């Protein structure tokens, strides 16, 4: 399996993801500690750190739209070069002044870049690995994201205590530049045909057919036991299978699941919110969908036919 997954382009994408996500998390937490040392106020420290997290929560769906409409390799390159330039600009123009306003704007821009970067990586996975390695590859990408969120602040605190802010700025800038150069040599196939979930004509018919097949493959058998869910008409989907789909197919699968659960055809914004929820880049839930349908995530459900333990996306009608 390892030889199937870690081919040249996928390996380079993962390396770039590690540099970008870890570098972003380290830098943002080090900046927060710098704010604490400047002000001595835990309230200011916590407030700026919390404010910088808002773009990651709110703008991840926009990142998914961009990843669907633009070549992902170009998105990664532009974002890493932009991060490098942003760090250099802050280090040269504002770092010595200790301006809280400049730090806040800088941290928000870093969070905005992360919110757009990660969906591009996730959308690239189906184009870089074989079908049999898709779930494992998707797991690698999600694991890197989880580790960056967990270990990035810890590493940022250790490095800040050892070296201070300015060495972190210079090294981070060099790392993002190296990541962008690395990503220049990645080849990620991109099909304008499937740019968006609102394709019309024969192409839409083809995507609808493929989405129906994907929906049926991800659908769990009726009667699967799910903790806290007693409705027999709930729709249960293998969340990893759905998350690994191309965004254009994934949105159609989620829309089908909503309608099957008795809901209305969701609008694009609500569908994007459910998409982020499915990829675990949004709040813990539940997510409310039009037509009185709620979406939940449940972990390690036992598949009644295979005995396999898997994560499940549950869509439940809330009216009787």
Record the SSE blueprint.
Blueprint: H1 2-5, H2 8-39, H3 42-69, H4 72-93, H5 100-128, H6 134-163, H7 165-183, H8 202-218, E1 235-238, H9 239-243, H10 247-260, H11 268-278, E2 287-289, E3 293-302, E4 309-317
Antiparallel strand pairs: 1-4, 2-3, 3-4
List keywords for this structure.
single chain; 320 residues; 4-stranded antiparallel sheet; 11 helices
The profile of the biggest β sheet is: 4 strands, antiparallel
Q: How much strand? A: 5-15%
What is the distance, rounded to the nearest whole angstrom, between the alpha carbons of the first and last residues?
Answer: 46 Å
- What would you call the structural class? alpha+beta
Total helical elements:
11
- The residue ranges in which pLDDT falls below 50 over 5 or more consecutive positions are 192-202
Helix content, binned percent: 55-70%
- SSE arrangement, N to C: HHHHHHHHEHHHEEE
Overall form: globular
């Amino acid at each position: 399996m390892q030889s199937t997954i870690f081919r040249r382009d996928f390996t380079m994408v993962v390396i770039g993801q590690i540099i970008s996500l870890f570098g972003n998390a380290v830098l943002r937490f080090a900046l927060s500690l710098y704010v604490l040392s400047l002000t001595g106020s835990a309230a200011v420290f916590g407030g700026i750190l919390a404010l910088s997290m808002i773009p990651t929560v709110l703008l991840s769906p926009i990142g998914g739209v961009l990843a669907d409409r633009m070549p992902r390799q170009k998105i990664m390159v532009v974002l890493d070069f932009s991060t490098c330039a942003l760090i250099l600009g802050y280090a040269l123009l504002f770092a010595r002044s200790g301006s809280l306003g400049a730090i806040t704007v800088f941290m928000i821009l870093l969070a905005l870049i992360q919110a757009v970067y990660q969906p591009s990586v996730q959308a690239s996975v189906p184009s870089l690995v074989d079908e049999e390695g898709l779930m494992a590859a998707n797991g690698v990408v999600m694991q890197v994201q989880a580790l960056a969120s967990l270990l990035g602040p810890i590493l940022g605190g250790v490095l800040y205590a050892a070296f201070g802010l300015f060495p972190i700025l210079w090294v981070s800038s060099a790392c993002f530049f190296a990541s962008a150069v690395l990503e220049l040599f990645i080849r990620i196939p991109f099909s304008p045909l499937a740019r968006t979930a609102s394709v019309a004509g024969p192409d839409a018919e083809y995507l609808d057919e493929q989405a129906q097949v994907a929906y049926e493959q991800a659908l769990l058998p009726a009667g699967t036991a799910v903790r806290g869910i007693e409705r027999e008409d709930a729709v249960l989907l293998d969340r990893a299978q759905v998350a690994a789909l191309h965004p254009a197919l994934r949105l159609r699968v989620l829309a089908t699941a909503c309608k099957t659960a008795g809901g209305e055809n969701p609008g694009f914004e609500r569908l994007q919110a459910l998409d982020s929820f499915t990829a675990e880049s949004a709040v813990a839930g539940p997510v409310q969908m039009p037509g009185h349908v709620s979406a939940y995530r449940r972990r390690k459900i036992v598949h009644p036919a295979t005995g396999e333990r898997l994560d499940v996306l549950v869509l439940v009608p809330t009216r009787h």
